Amino acid sequence: MRNMSNANFKFKSVSGADLVEYWRGNEEFADLFNSSLYYGLYGIDPETLRDDDLDFAKAFPDDLYAGNIVAKVSDQTKGYFMILSIDANYPTNHAIVENSLKYEAAAYEKQIKGPGDVYPVDMIVFYAGKERWEGPKALPVGHNRKPYLKEQKLNVIEARVDNLPFENENNKRLIQWIREE
């Protein structure tokens, strides 16, 4: 499994499968999180990332999105990080928010059952569809339950719309390529 830079990665199309392979590169993976969740700061060192062996597609065989997840762990930042890549062929509906909860629960369960520490799970949905994101970005909490439950937000990055402060040249090229396609 490659986890170096993706300087020579060639896209055939903007597909979930190609994006999954692309995000396996530690430098690109860390830069996406640093540019979005860490607001351009250097929060995750790519050298500290290691691939997680949780096979979401095997764990959720009937799930449309499960094969499009790349998961990595950083013991330095004490974090478990996931990217779910979605292209125009996937519906953007409540199933994504609900499934993201399922993926996060699986990541926590694996950590709890494992020998190491349990880290917070952060997930980004990287959307490369041609149309604007029409799906939800949160699972709503009923009015009478708000004092007791937090809203489950979905960190959606729209590749064609969002302007992130990428440091990684490959990520800059990826976004440009997606926007020109």
How would you explain this protein's 3D organization?
There is one protein chain. This protein is an alpha/beta fold and 181 residues long. Helix content is 30%, strand content 18%. The protein contains 5 helices and 7 strands, in the order ααβαββαββββα. The strands form 2 sheets. The protein has a 5-stranded mixed beta sheet, sandwiched between helices. Strands 5-6 form a two-stranded antiparallel sheet. The mean pLDDT is 85.
Topology:
Blueprint: H1 16-23, H2 26-36, E1 49-51, H3 56-59, E2 69-74, E3 79-86, H4 94-113, E4 121-127, E5 138-139, E6 152-153, E7 155-158, H5 169-180
Parallel strand pairs: 3-4, 4-7
Antiparallel strand pairs: 1-2, 2-3, 5-6
In order across it, which strands form the biggest sheet? 1-2-3-4-7
Number of helices: 5
Number of strands: 7
Taken from the alpha-carbon principal axes, the silhouette is: globular
| pLDDT < 50 stretches | none
How can the largest sheet be summarized? 5 strands, mixed
What separation lies between the terminal Cα atoms?
Answer: 28 Å
Order of H and E elements: HHEHEEHEEEEH
Strand fraction equals 15-25%
Cα gyration radius (Å): 16 Å
Which structural class fits the helix and strand makeup?
alpha/beta
Q: Helix content range of the residues, please?
A: 25-40%
Rounded mean pLDDT is 85
